Each structure stands twice: as C-alpha cells, then as structure tokens.
Amino acid sequence: MEKDKAKIKEELLNFKCPRWQDLPDFDIYMDQVVFYINQQLSVLNISDGDKPITSSMVNNYVKNSIVKPPIKKHYKRYHLAFLIVVTILKRVYSLGEISQMIAIQTKMKNSNLEAAYDTFAIYFETTLHDIVANNGISTLTKDTNPYQTLLMNIIQSVILKIYAQAELIDPIR
Known about the structure:
With about 170 residues, the protein is mainly alpha-helical. It contains 7 helices and no strands. Helix 4 runs parallel beside helix 6 and helix 6 (about 115-135) packs across helix 7 (about 145-165).
C-alpha cells in the first residue's frame, strides 16, 4: 500500500540524520553496512521501491575510490559517514561530482572528518525540515563562508528533489 503525501511529509519532518557519535563505533560487515544505511535513509526514498544502497553500489564506490576500501572486510565509522553522504547526494549528483565535493571538503583548512560529517548531517536535516515545513521554500539564510554556501546549495538541491517526489504523490489533492 502506497503512503499518502501527508504521511510522507510527516516522516520527512521527523527524519534525523545520524550524527558521527550515532554511527556504530565498531567494525561491521558489508551486509550490516547496507542494512544500517537503508534503515537510516529509507524515509528519503520516496518515488521508487529500490533500497537507498546495495552491496553492489558500495563495491562500485570503493572501486571508483569514492570510499576507502574496507579493512579485512570490515567497515568502520568513517566508511558509514562517507556512504551516507554519497547515498544522499547520488540522488542528484554524479559520482564524479560527489568525488569533487569530497575533495573540496578534505582540502579545506582544518578539515576534520567528524566535524565535516556532522555539519553535513545537521545542514541536511535542518534544511529538509525547513523546506518540508514551508511547502518547498527554504527560509534559511545563506552563510557568508563560500564553502558553507556551496554545501547549503548542494543540500537544498537534493532536498528539493525529495520534496518534489513527495509532492508528485497524488498531486491533484
């Protein structure tokens, strides 16, 4: 049974993007990675019945050097952080563009993976809630830091696609 638009919007308003400290802090296997990410991001997958991520996708991201290879078939917290970001961004951006965005982040002065991931998670969650609550219009202001502004623009483009998919469910209402 398909969810209605109001239920989807309610789920989006209640979505919480996991923070660094929420990610498992122990080594996990591929099937656990896929299960965890699909569980965390399932609410964002509105228009198609596919899972947000599969083991084939993870292997492809590793093969294309977007995500570091697992260590003895074990994935760590930083793998999950990268995979969550890639899974969210791939809705709108190509893998090449995502690689470029990751490279920009890692080259930033005082770049710290934990802080960068949490910033992404907070911006994504805050912007998602803002756009859904305001019927597709963001009320958030732009940051004066050009990297922060770029991050907000990237996140808004993904969220606007998610929002449009929710709106396309029974658009006549």
